[in-house]
């Protein structure tokens, strides 16, 4: 038995896994952001709640493990940022620990139990507040040792003009320090940014989507530009990876007409032609971070036996 954790900036959620088909969510507790001792004690308390002795723990975190130093980059939880977190938790809890990026865990969950079942190469794309991704090949996470594979949201690559007819798009500054990243336009905040640029209107992504679905002219123009901007880098990612399915998670994945538009545009821009949807809504709707971390932990446990 292993215990998986989904570590977010506001809450820590736990899950208990006896097998790939037996993963049960546990409760949730507030995340101690600035106190590492309290962070460890929160994990310890969740473990104790199960009444069982796990063989290892696996954590899904909104951060990245540096594959060279094994130090975690996690700006929104300062007490674990910069730590060799796996080693630190192993020392404090006396259990083998596995750390993985949340988008990687999402991709792993979809490959193992979701829309990617039966596909050799699965690219999981996150269209949430921002843009993320993870890559699974032959059932294995490419980032098993940490790293940035699948991060299609970053790099100065968005088009300088988009839409029909084309309109100039600024190279928006990105939180990663670069300009013109997909992350600046592809998530919910990016959609809002585009609408402001195009129409000088401050609307939430929900309002923009709602107006688009009603046929409102300005929102329709924004969605046209959005799809044009996002489809090309996603098509390039598919060409490079050879993915045959792209499950999408995050808040924008709930807008199925938007996914259908994006799927149509992506399939028109890739080398391999599909007569079926390629960019699809994710199927692991409940806690994919927990599921993906559990699957990674179970694989690690099997390999250690």
UniProtKB/TrEMBL annotation:
Keyword vocabulary terms for this entry: ATP-binding, Carbohydrate metabolism, Kinase, Metal-binding, Nucleotide-binding, Transferase, Zinc
Pfam families in the record: ROK
Catalytic activity: N-acetyl-D-glucosamine + ATP = N-acetyl-D-glucosamine 6-phosphate + ADP + H(+)
SUPFAM superfamilies: Actin-like ATPase domain
Enzyme superclass (EC): transferase
Coiled coil: none
EC number(s) reported in the record: 2.7.1.59
Keyword Transcription in record: no
A single GO molecular function term of this UniProt record: ATP binding
Xref: InterPro entries: ATPase_NBD, ROK
Keyword Magnesium: no
Name the record gives this protein: N-acetylglucosamine kinase
